[in-house]
Amino acid sequence: MVKKAYPQGVYLSTKDRTRAEAIADELGVTLHALLQYAILDFVQRYEAGEVKPKLETQMVLIPPDGEK
Asked: How many C-beta atoms surround the C-beta of residue 2 within 10 A?
């Protein structure tokens, strides 16, 4: 049985979307195809250990159980 693929979405600023659309136009592909390629390329490079994003830890207070 083939597992159904569910679409995912990401919010991009107008500036970032414009930049991505310009790249897609330059390559002659759709924005969807470009974003799909970019994500899959990142995952492959991440799994190969070629790229590690910079992460920042932020302290968050979590209330005790039952309190909001």
From this structure: 4
For the chain, domain boundaries = 14-47
pTM attached to this predicted model: 0.70
| 9 dihedral zone (left: phi>0; alpha: psi -120 to 50; beta) | beta
Per CATH, the number for 14-47 is 1.10.1220
Q: What is the pLDDT of residues 22-40, one digit of tens each?
A: 999 999 999 999 999 999 9
Query: Scanning the structure block, which residue is given the tokens 């390559």?
Result: 27
Work out the number of other CB atoms within 10 angstroms of the CB of residue 29.
14
Interaxial angle between packed helices 14-27 and 31-47, expressed in degrees from 0 to 180 and rounded to the nearest 10: 100
